[in-house]
Amino acid sequence: MTKDNLSMTAQQRKQQTETFLKSLGIPVYDGLPAIEEENVIKVRTVQEITARIMILTYLNCIATQHALQPEILEYLKTEGLWVKTSPSEKILFEKPALTEDDINLISWRAESIWLLLWSIHKVEHLTMPIEEVDIDALFLLLPPFMGDPTEYIADVQTRSVSDLLNEADFLFRLNWAISKNELEGLNGRIAFERYYTINWITSTRKEWDDHVN
Predict the structure, then answer these.
(1) Angle at Cα 15 formed by Cα 10 and Cα 17, nearest 5°?
(2) 66 contacts: CB under 8 Å, gap ≥ 6
(3) Interior CA angle at 192 toward 49 and 94, to 5°?
């Protein structure tokens, strides 16, 4: 729900989100707190975000083409991405065979990739969480497969703190509404994956594997 990149207080942001949700007929609970102020947020760097995009992308590759596992593991280690891979992801990357539950979990991370791409302006707008991401469209926006991402990284920049917090506040309140009500048309899992990811981008979650409150 990025409205603009104008700075505002956390309370103003809360009021903006609640007004927007009400305009869509989505329930609002005024007792939910305001999220962090802009001056306390530490946004991840382009390098960190791009590394996370690549890790999640190659994890999806292993889920769909497990025969690529040795090549992908070698690439991650050579490019310095393995040290940035979370403990739970390393387990999945190194499994001799993935279960259906593993593959399902990994496939939902495509929604995380989409949000990450939005955070560096590779995706222009985020629509409401209704339809799952178009995988074919996603791959067109990624760094070169098994290639050097240097040029890709040099060509992107992160969105403003204000834009990121607008989205974080929106997803915080939307996830509450979805968890407490049956909202027709909205996909709760997409909303959760986006919320999980935006909290990592703003460092509200310190580590990728940390739970979401």
Answers:
(1) 95
(2) 97, 98
(3) 60
Tokens of 196: 């999980």
The pTM of the whole model exceeds 0.70: yes
Contact 8/16 with Cβ under 8 angstroms?
A: yes
pLDDT digit string (tens) for 46-73? 999 999 999 999 999 999 999 999 999 9
Averaged pLDDT score across all residues of the chain? 94
How many residues in the chain?
A: 213
Task: Kindly report each contact of residues 199-203 with a partner whose C-beta sits within 8 Å and lies 24 or more positions away, as own/partner.
Answer: 199/168, 200/44, 200/52, 201/43, 201/44, 201/49, 201/115, 201/116, 201/119, 201/158, 201/164, 202/36, 202/41, 202/42, 202/43, 202/44, 202/161, 202/164, 202/165, 202/168, 203/41, 203/42, 203/43, 203/44
The single residue listed with the structure tokens 């530490």 is 42
For 137, the token pair is 């469209």
Handedness of CA 175, 177, 181, 182 (dihedral sign): negative
Query: Tens digit of pLDDT for each residue in 173-191?
Result: 999 999 999 899 999 999 9
Contacts 24+ apart (CB under 8 A), 96-103: 97/66, 98/62, 98/63, 98/66, 102/63, 103/63
